Amino acid sequence: MPLFTCITCRVAFADGEIQRRHYKTDWHRYNLKRKVAEMPPVTAEVFQQKVNEQKAEAEAQQQSKTKTMNCELCNKTFSSENSFTNHMSSKKHKELETAKARKEEIMTRKGLSAEKVELERQEIRKQNSISENADSSSDEDDDDGSDFEEEALEITDCLFCPHHSVSLEDNMRHMTRSHSFFIPDLEFVLDFKGLLTYLGEKVGIGNICLYCNEKGKNFFSTEAVQKHMVDKGHTKINYEGDAILEYADFYDFTSSYPDYDPNEENGSDEIERDNTLAVDEQTLELCLPSGAKIGHRNLRHIYKQSLPPERSRHSKVIHKIVADYKALGWHGTIGSVSRQKVKDVRLQNKQQAKRTVDISVKANKLQKHYRAQVLF
Questions:
Q1: Cβ(128)–Cβ(74) below 8 Å
Q2: Which residue intervals are annotated with compositional bias (Acidic residues) in the record (predicted)?
Q3: Taking the CA of residue 34 as centre, how many other CA atoms within 13 Å lie in the half-sphere pointing to its CB?
Q4: CA distances in angstroms from 182 to 45, 175, 231, 251, 354, listed in the order given
């Protein structure tokens, strides 16, 4: 009767040396793990069978990884049969096959040797490798070999993904809920469609991130800049510091000024004027030193009209979008300092335009019937 046993594996040994060697085997360690998991032990034959199956599976996986498919004509390597099949059925590959067949036929007619034919093949492979160095094998089946020009995104196109909406309101709702995109101080936007058109041109034509502007990396396609904005969380307008000045032409914060009077025509944007009277030859309006304008009596039927403000064209859409913003917890993003910057920029532009007109009048450049006293 043997005196040396292993309770875990349920086996007996003739002497202690064999028992000690058994404790160091993988079979014993495997049964110890099964014992901890409250599972019955396995025999040595079953354990060896499991080891062989695992080795065979590992070898099969290694062979599948090392197994690659090559296209000698295009000088490309593929790791899966699907990508290789798509490449072989692609339009560009078939065109290269046709071109190669024609060239070989021409060289055969000219009586060239087989060595020259092989050299010509190698030259074709080098040219294809250089011309397609920037292409990836994964999207080879979608490549038709034609160039395309970047186009501006429409106001119904999402700025961050290929989604297309039926209307402007649906597009804004999609960008807000899917990409957390908000337009800062939407209630003060003067030209809503113009702002979205500008953003669409910035992303579609310029391939510029809305948040990085031109300070970040350069992108060469609309898909690349859209992926960057989604991955980096840049699905927002940069509205901090001096970046707000880029969108100053699309906003009007006149109603937020403390000294704003809606009854006045020019509000608080009036600038200092000369104490001289000026008449506009086109509109026949007389500008007083106070800034008020007096129209000609022949045009009184025009001045009697009561026209709505320009912003009212998109007021319904803006109100609906603002309601969606507030429902999602948005309460505005711009502060008094930024509004003052926009106000200063608009005032500066207005003063610059007035100075340009004054200089042009003094230089006699507005009268087309006068000839400039230069270049005789």
A1: yes
A2: 137-147
A3: 15
A4: 67, 8, 17, 15, 35
